[in-house]
Amino acid sequence: MMTTAPSNIVGFDKFSVEDVRQDFPCLDRIVNSNPLVYFDNAATKQKPRAVLDAMQMFYENHCANVHRSAHTLSNEATAMLEAAREKVRDFINADKQSEIIFTRGTTESINLVANSFGQGFLKPGDEIIISVMEHHSNFVPWQMLRDRMGLNLKMATIAPDGNLDLDHYESLFTEKTRLVALAHVSNSLGTVNDAKKLVQIAHQNGAKILLDGCQAVAHLPVDVKDLECDFYVFSAHKMFGPTGVGVLYGKEDLLDQMPPWQGGGEMIDQVTLEKTTYADLPHKFEAGTPPIAEIIGLGAAVEYLSQFDRVALHEYETYLRDMLIERLSNHPEMAIYGTANNKVSIISFNMGDIHSSDFASIVDKEGIAVRAGHHCNQPLMQHFNIPGMVRASLCFYNTEAEIDRFGQSLETVARLFS
Ligand code: PLP
């Protein structure tokens, strides 16, 4: 097994794959009598021991509810949670902690904006722009809002290489366009959208923009101030943190004007029989007991990722991506979806007419985990006129040797179906 990234990679000496793998206990699993090859990283990343330890440390030593009591454990828990907020703020270079809202994940962050921005800023006849490459999380909430409020939902299309068609996107704006919601990185195609350009075009047309960074944060440095986006959303579990927690970043002046969308404890200032006044940001949007251990785990994930040279990680993942694409390309009946130059290590494909689920089941017998199906991208599948795809998604803890094993499995599948 390769121990360090090859020397032709920029920053190859900045990390050792073998050392990194030691951080992830689950990578040692034996699956169906073979060492696990985990190529389902776009679905969720494995968790480093630092994240597992941080969560356990909270439960073993500091377990209490936050923002409520005056006792020591509660103060410690609150300090740990707010320290995680500061780590996230710094990680995406937001201006203020008040701009970082903890949610249950990307899905809830988008639903929050749809409900709250929808209620506060939209009226019947207004227009929202999304695209055919959106995950259902960035699709269904807008359709629901459209139906509830009588809005018009417009769909930007993609070019054959999987890039967003910028001319088409730009042509969709009218004076009624209020909001744009687009993926920073596509979860099926891996395309890295030119987020700054998307933001510029939205703002030139007087619309606000939400970027779905769910597949971006683990692979690219994200700077919300540089992007100038109005909202940025992501899930902890896609960036080595736990499930059940995510982030909504929003510009403070916008969040301030938006009504709360869930009522309950934590989000109030005063409650009387007649009426309720609300807490300041960020708590106005954080009703109920938050996932405290998970937020602390997210803070640890941010710290874990931040210790690396992100450019070196990206270069290495790109190297593995190209290796895997080369193996796939050796097969004559291979269709690869998404060939944009700027693309993270997410590779989706179909091998002839072999059903994606059959492909995934066969390689699973050899210990290789890939995803099969529509990847919560049914509109994208309709665009390609296919029921599904196989998706291999890589991470910097994957190795050349694993790509070799995947290449051998391709031969197995080809033999079985020949
Ligand atoms: N957006 C994108 C681009 C995704 O890839 C995903 C999950 O795969 C989501 C949104 C939804 O994330 P979650 O299920 O963590 O809320």
List the helices and strands and how they pair.
Elements (H helix, E strand, L loop, with lengths): L16 H6 L7 E2 L2 E2 L1 E2 L10 H13 L10 H20 L8 E4 L2 H16 L5 E5 L8 H10 L2 E5 L9 H6 L5 E7 L11 H10 L3 E5 L11 H4 L3 E5 L10 E5 L1 H6 L10 E4 L4 E3 L13 H15 L3 H20 L4 E4 L8 E6 L4 H9 L3 E2 L1 E3 L4 H7 L4 E5 L6 H18 L1
Parallel strand pairs: 3-15, 5-6, 5-7, 7-8, 8-9
Antiparallel strand pairs: 1-2, 4-10, 9-10, 11-12, 13-14, 14-17, 16-17
Helix pairs in contact: 2-10, 3-10, 4-5, 11-14
Bound molecules: pyridoxal-5'-phosphate.
* Uncertain spans: none
Number of domains: 2
Q: Radius of gyration from the CA trace? A: 22 Å
CATH topology of the largest domain: Aspartate Aminotransferase, domain 2
* Major sheet size, sense and barrel closure: 7 strands, mixed
Overall mean pLDDT score?
A: 96
